[in-house]
Amino acid sequence: MTIEGTHGLWADLHQPDLQPENSDISVLGIPFDGLASARPGAAAAPKTIRAWSRHLTPFSEDRTDLREITICDLGDEVISNPPIDFERIKQKIAGLPNILIALGGDHSVSIPLLQGLLLRRPKMGVLWLDAHPDLCDSFDGSRLSHACVLKRALDAGLDPSRVCMVGLRSWEEQEIELIETGRLNVYTAQQVYDDGIKSFLPEIIAKLSTCDGVYVSCDIDALDPSIAPGTGIPDHGGLGMRDILTLLRSLPKNIDLLGLDVVEVAPPLDPTDSTVFAALKIIMEFVGVVARRKK
Ligand SMILES: [Mn+2]
């Protein structure tokens, strides 16, 4: 697919001569859906998300000029042998000098991202936006499945009390004990609907403020499927877009932002491309948060 844009890549924020060392944000695509348990399609996301990024303006909702920010798009990491390729990505992320925006892929691609960031920031916090906790030790015969992502991060040393999970609403039996007794901070989609995201912000911010950096992992299925239907396992009763944007916008300056991934966007499953635009909304408003901090 070729989409002619009215702007350049990443709404003009990408420039070809940039390196991670002299830019604010690095973008990395990981077009891989080989560890999704149902309905692949997320491998097509990086290409489609980038293509439509050329149609966005360089302003966030509150009219922050995003051109304060430079984005270095590093292109795609190809996965042909997950254990080997994940190790390479982990090392690359561990050495990254700026803020990461990663484009999945199924959620398994976040395994090396989280592991790599933990090498840099052992007391890292994670804001986990997802319908699912991904706490299975093994799933479908694989310990690298997209259902095992957070479990692998805990194994790598991520402190569960530094994890805030928002939007949860679907559980495997093997995950329930960790959810109920594992010191993770859980805010279900039902709680957010009943009490509003703002009622949980003070607690979430307090937890994340004790960390030496915060990473946001956003499975697009955190959103309700009426907003983002193009994903492998849609689960109804999900978050609204405003819930996620309010969360991102509320992260205070004293929280060092390490990056964001947006995963499980499956363009072939959504002929309207609404799911791709939902991903872009989250990405560009995250850029807005970074831009406001730079002022
Ligand atoms: Mn999920």
Question: How is this structure best described in words?
Answer:
Helices cover 31% and strands 16% of the residues. By secondary structure, the protein is α/β, with parallel strands linked by helices. The mean pLDDT is 96. It is globular and about 50 Å long. The chain has a single domain, classed as 3-Layer(aba) Sandwich (Arginase, Chain A). The protein starts with 24 loop residues before the first strand and ends with a helix. It has nine helices and eight strands. Helix 1 (45-53) crosses helix 9, helix 2 packs parallel to helix 3 (110-120) and helix 8 runs parallel beside helix 9 (274-294). Strands 2-1-3-8-7-4-5-6 form an eight-stranded parallel beta sheet, with helices on both faces. The longest helix has 21 residues, at 274-294. The protein binds manganese (II) ion. Manganese (II) ion (MN) binds at residues 130-132, 219, 221, 264.
What is the molecular shape?
A: globular
Count the DSSP helices. Answer: 9
**Overall number of structural domains:** 1
Which structural category do the helix and sheet elements fall into? alpha/beta
Keywords:
8-stranded parallel beta sheet; binds manganese (II) ion; 9 helices; globular; Arginase, Chain A; 295 residues
Structural topology:
Elements: E1 25-30, H1 45-53, E2 71-76, H2 82-94, E3 99-104, H3 110-120, E4 125-129, H4 149-155, E5 163-168, H5 176-181, E6 185-188, H6 189-195, H7 201-209, E7 214-219, H8 241-249, E8 257-263, H9 274-294
Parallel strand pairs: 1-2, 1-3, 3-8, 4-5, 4-7, 5-6, 7-8
Produce a short descriptive summary:
Helices cover 31% and strands 16% of the residues. The protein is of the alpha/beta class.
